[in-house]
Design goal:
408 residues, mainly alpha, Serine Threonine Protein Phosphatase 5, Tetratricopeptide repeat, 0% strand
Length: 408
């Protein structure tokens, strides 16, 4: 009874260390557990996971084979072990299949969801990777299993250097040669020059979750500052000079769009009438846009933002093609991003549990509040906001992967 208690303590300690990205501490805990129960597949899988974090790929290979030997009929540990072997060979699609099978056997394993997030990111599926990473964090009480998997960038990273296996007669066997091959040339260090550049770029983008949001905010601020300096005013709706300046800069005037200046529908998204106007819009974008950039990925987020803004402008034009009143601002695009957030909450409501219901209620509250202020303020282009909102929701619904949509 005491030995069983001890091994459970070591297993829990190893699990917590992995969740915190502490591979060495996890390996020590699982090594102690292996001394107590050398034939426990859970222990050997833990050794494989810990040594994967340390970069000891030969140990990972042998530990995974030991798990499969102890579970010849298959099972959760054996399935995860096979996924790790597939990861070593860069067979990410096959590894994902095994991870999904493992999740169906035990959906409460935070490590497996973190592994799934890593494999999805390796395949460029940032949206699904974000969901899997969030799931892993919820199951491990906020931990993200950082540094538990090989780096996706091609460069050799300190702390992941391969550790050669000890020389023995088994090295002449096919399995021994396979281990040496994997240790000598890790698969993720083999891409050509173009692949390396793509991986570096993707890694850099993944390190900055607000990359696109910051660029959009920066463009809006720079445009406003340049226009203010050139026109010597910061209020472009208070004087004839200010209105003329913003119209010349590209504000949407429907009568001019009707005459062929269609580009104004796009340029108007990056113009603002005053400091208060741009400050409120950029503050909203900073909070809402960051969430959508993480949930949907950078390119989907950019499509939602630009698509909602353009469609909002088009709808505004068709409401009154002969209007001479200039309109400008990123509000339509931001409402589109806000609509995408509502779609994300709704589609994933079951997986988010009670938090999902609360998020949807909160989203509806803020939507109602914004619409109320929009209809009660005569100077706000409410129909541009509504059109952007609907456009953002539709685009977001189209961009959600179908496999993910079927699951919820």
């Amino acid at each position: 009874m005491e030995a069983q208690t001890d091994i459970q303590t070591y297993l829990e300690r190893g699990k917590q260390a992995l969740a915190q990205g502490q591979g060495r501490e996890a390996a020590i805990a699982y090594a102690h557990a292996a001394q107590l129960e050398p034939d426990n597949p859970v222990v050997h899988l833990g050794l494989a996971e810990a040594n994967l974090a340390l970069g000891s790929y030969g140990v990972v290979y042998m530990a995974c084979r030991k798990v499969q030997e102890l579970q010849p009929a298959g099972g959760f540990e054996s399935t995860v072990a096979q996924a790790l072997l597939d990861l070593l060979d860069r067979r990410y699609d096959r590894a994902l299949q095994n991870v999904d099978a493992a999740i169906s056997l035990d959906p409460g394993s935070g490590y497996v969801h973190a592994l799934r997030a890593y494999l999805l990111r390796a395949n460029g599926q940032d949206y699904d990777a974000g969901l899997a990473r969030a799931r892993a964090a919820r199951l491990s009480y906020g931990q993200h299993f950082d540094n538990c998997f090989p780096p996706l960038e091609p460069a050799s990273t300190p702390g992941y250097a391969p550790v050669p296996p000890p020389a023995s007669s088994s090295d002449s066997s096919p399995e021994g040669n396979g281990i040496l091959q994997r240790e000598a040339i890790p698969p993720w260090s083999r891409p050509n020059g173009m692949q390396r550049q793509v991986i570096r770029t993707r890694f850099a983008l993944s390190q900055n979750p607000r990359f696109v949001t910051n660029i959009i905010i920066g463009i809006n601020v720079i445009v406003f500052v340049i226009l203010a300096l050139l026109s010597r005013t910061i209020s472009f709706d208070q004087s004839e000079q200010g209105i003329l300046a913003i119209v010349n800069a590209g504000a949407q005037v429907n009568i001019l769009v009707q005459q062929g200046q269609v580009w104004r529908i796009f340029t108007a998204m990056f113009l603002h009438f005053s400091i208060l106007h741009i400050a409120l819009n950029m503050l909203s974008l900073f909070f809402i846009g960051t969430a959508i950039e993480v949930f949907f990925g950078k390119w989907r987020y950019l499509v939602i933002y630009l698509g909602a803004g353009i469609l909002g402008g088009i709808f505004t034009y068709f409401l009154d093609p002969s209007s001479v009143i200039p309109s400008a601002g990123a509000s339509g695009a931001i409402f589109g991003v806000f609509g995408a957030l509502g779609v994300f909450y709704f589609v994933n409501r079951r997986n988010m549990g009670s938090f999902g219901r609360g998020a949807i209620t909160n989203w509806l509250f803020w939507l109602g509040l914004n619409l109320f202020f929009g209809f009660s303020s005569p100077n706000i282009g409410i129909w541009d906001h509504i059109a952007g909102l609907v456009a953002g929701m539709l685009i977001a619904l189209l961009l959600i992967p179908r496999t993910r949509r079927r699951q919820f």
